[in-house]
Amino acid sequence: MSKKSDIQQEPEVGFEIVNRVGIVTLNRPRALNALSHEMIVRLTQVFEFCRKEDAVAAIVLRGAGEKAFCAGGDVRAIYDSVPSEAVTESTWLQFFIDEYRLDYAIHHFEKPVIAFMDGIVMGGGMGLAQGAALRVVTERTRMAMPETRIGMLPDVGATYFMGKMPLDVELYAGLTGTTLSGADAVAYELADICVPSAWLRDFMSRLEALSWGPSESAIESLRRAFAAPTAVAADSPLEVHRAQIRQHFGTTGGIQSIVDSLRKDTLTDWSTETLAALTGHSPCMLEVTCRALLRGRGLTLAECFRMELGVVFRTISEGDFLEGVRALMVDKDKQPRWNPATLAEVDGGLVQHFLTSPWRGGLHPLADLGTL
User: Fold this and answer.
1) What string of DSSP letters covers 112-125?
2) Fold of 4-363
3) Does 80 qualify as catalytic in the annotation?
């Protein structure tokens, strides 16, 4: 890739260079900028181009439209591909391999990446943004990792980056899939600054006028351009329930101990609603997710990606993923038939099976991650 026009041929990923900054736009607004495999491949190409191009000092990553930065991976497309006789296992697996490699590259990108997380930011959108050097949220940000609702675990590096949060908040957010505000994101280390959404709408003109300070680093110059004169109020809505979150989720005892604790707390609507949310999710993946989040706190980013890929492989090929997507996104009956159906039926051997890599040593598709 050597010409900007080559990149621009892909309509779902827009690209232009403005005052030494590569503007990368996720351009599927009708699908809330959900990531297709083609978009992931194209984004990888764009980032590699920017890495080598001396005229690019930094990258801004944003979503098209008014509703979302990125609502995640195109889960429905993955669902449709898995049972097809014309599609091999390697086809859907390659989606995740390529996605995780892209996310990892952003975490370690040599030039500053700035992510504008305005609107909805879920799943794969979090994977793209959390590796950025400057993570910008707004009062419109609605952030979540809701994968347990469809029989999946929070992936795209979530077992690593969510580990920067306090344990109780990490388990609460990761298990329930609750939605966080921009202020929550800043308070719990999932964002760096919170600015008014309107401030981002004319960022291009400010970028064009930016004079690169001779003694400033690229990230300092960009922070100066994108930090609003008046930040959004920093009060975190999640903090209202923090004492209850700490009481019920501040444990390493597993999902059953969390559920038992919530069942004893019958005095608040919050505990009742939280318990209802958990009991509607995949019992197996709740336990697997709980263990994966705890394990991830002691792993490197590369190790977390390898662990997540193994779990994803197992839940799609033999777990609850297909049933979860069917119930919530295809038939929309909201009556998933989980297997096992209850937490009591999820034994330690099954959980260990999901957390054990399907590949041995160097045969893991991400074996080289972190070694290059």
Assistant:
1) -EEEEE-SEEETHH
2) 2-enoyl-CoA Hydratase; Chain A, domain 1 (3.90.226)
3) no
